Amino acid sequence: MKKGRAFPRVILTATLIYLLIPLLATLLYSVAKSWQNTILPESWTLGWFRDLFMDPRFTLSLWRTLWICFLSVGLSVVVMLPTIFIVVVYLPRLEKLLNVLVLIPYAAPGVVMAVGLIKLYSSGPVAIAGTMWILVGVYFVAVLPYMYQGIRNSMRTIRTIDLIEAAELLGASKLMAFRRIIVPNVLPGIRVSVLLSFSILFGEFVLANLLVGGQFETIQIYLYHRLSESGHLASAVVICYFLVILILSGILLALSGILGRQSTAASKKGSGQ
Amino acid sequence: MLKKRMDIKLILALIPFCILIIGFELLPAVSVVMESFTGNEGGFSLEQYVSAFTKMFYLQSIKNSLMISAVSSCIGIIAGLFIAYAITKVSEQTRTRVLMISNMTSNFAGIPLAFAYIILLGSNGIFTILFEQWGLPIFSGFNLYSWSGLILVYVYFQIPLAALLLYPTFYGIREEWREASALLGASTYHFWRRIALPILLPAAAGTFTILFANAMGAYATAYALLGGNYNLLVIRIGSLVAGDVFTRPQLGSALAMVLGLTMVLSLWINERLMRRVRRDLG
């Protein structure tokens, strides 16, 4: 029996070491003053973090990223809640179509999305390439699969159609039923998909780089520019970035009942690669 | 009964969604398709596809992408199978911890990941220098900024994904089945060969398609590690449509079509395979 237990433990320990080494190295590098040819750095400093927070480019890019994520995810909630509600309750025949539309971004890598968008929006009546607005639009599309799944599941759990029937029987108008009954009941159920979408967008690089580039420097773009300049500073950026992601996924895990639903992890296609 | 009548307000409420989906999903998609069939001088033409599949430079980028995706996915699946198996054999607490860390490191991708590997194994990397000092030639012939380096970094994000996707299947193989087969006289080998493997194979193949699509579309990692210096499909597309020097959006669109179709094909195969897994596991 004991022998049977040892093998899995060895595998898992090796896996954890393998997964954590790059992270640890980055962390150590960000607090190392000099690190040449020893296992651990020879001397330590928090100077890189100080330099980082003194750099207005960094703080600006961080705020920009938070702002654009907030804007895109907010837009997604505001637009998708009524849309999915109307389709589920009043236009069930269109649900198949909606399903296909929201799954397309899941199959299309960022590069492919960018190709069509650059062509469309570089010139002509809506020349928004190079501004943050093109990012808001494409980010809305990019998080559709996750937002749709979350909102749809939440609506299923609260039995939307029954609720609406009851509300209408009691004389509520459609708008009132939606605002007073559906929205407050659905919102708690979509917290997980909101946070997941937020953290996916927070680490997004491809679209930001190809569509906007240096004109609207997000945290990932800032990091990319710093890579070639100072390794220590770049690793401090990575650590800050990762802290934000950790806080987000910490909240995410707590909300989803600690892996009660592995589906969030499993359905998450590697996003930022 | 619910009044199913539609009124004008409901239609109006759908307009924002329609505008966004048309403007940022459907029109760009149509534009990629149309551009890819446009010749360099305009007009309908298959010229771009001919270039994509005959010019060595582009053909090589397709081949490189396919190879890197296939190899990194294979390694990912093999490691993932062992990890997924191990996950089902340990205590609840350990399992939660491993899953949490796998999940966490799946956020560690793209530029930060490439950077971490540069710190570790780049030309002045910690391991590179340390091993050199110790006289261990493990990484002496190794170059991070090359094919093998790219594989190494891709494998890092493939392994946790494979483990997370595979371990539910291992849970599907119930302990009672093993007991039942043992009672009927099957050896451990027979159990794995006749019962577990037929269930695992389609799941592994399905996971492979996801990993494959994941690697085909991965851009940031390769971009951060090698800039434009390594010939990958995603990198080529990026520089054809948004390059610094010159752009050829039509050819970029044709290559984007090739990439897009590969993704759709892998996800379609995945869907077919997973349907079978769900049926087997009831």
UniProtKB/TrEMBL annotation, chain A:
Span of domain ABC transmembrane type-1: 62-252
SUPFAM superfamilies: MetI-like
Chief site of localization: membrane
Record has NADP as a keyword: no
Any one GO CC term of the record: plasma membrane
Record-annotated membrane-spanning stretches: 65-91, 98-121, 127-148, 189-212, 232-259
Residues spanning the signal sequence: none
Membrane topology: Multi-pass membrane protein
Transcription listed as a keyword: no
BP term (GO), one: transmembrane transport
Keywords, alphabetical: Cell inner membrane, Cell membrane, Membrane, Transmembrane, Transmembrane helix, Transport
Database matches in Pfam families: BPD_transp_1
Cellular localization per UniProt: Cell inner membrane; Cell membrane
PANTHER family according to UniProt: INNER MEMBRANE ABC TRANSPORTER PERMEASE PROTEIN YDCV (PTHR43357)
The family this protein is said to belong to: Belongs to the binding-protein-dependent transport system permease family.
Name this polypeptide is given: ABC transporter permease subunit
TrEMBL record, chain B:
CDD domains, sorted: TM_PBP2
PROSITE patterns cross-referenced by the UniProt entry: ABC_TM1 (PS50928)
GO CC terms: plasma membrane
InterPro entries in UniProt: MetI-like, MetI-like_sf
Pfam families in UniProt: BPD_transp_1 (PF00528)
Signal peptide: none
UniProt entry tagged with the keyword Transmembrane: yes
The ABC transmembrane type-1 domain, residue ranges: 62-270
Compartments in which it is found: Cell membrane
Predominant cellular place of this UniProt entry's protein: membrane
PANTHER family reported in the protein's UniProt record: INNER MEMBRANE ABC TRANSPORTER PERMEASE PROTEIN YDCU-RELATED (PTHR42929:SF1), INNER MEMBRANE ABC TRANSPORTER PERMEASE PROTEIN YDCU-RELATED-RELATED (PTHR42929)
Protein name listed in UniProt: ABC transporter permease subunit
Originating species: Paenibacillus zeisoli
Upper lineage: Bacteria, Bacillati, Bacillota, Bacilli, Bacillales
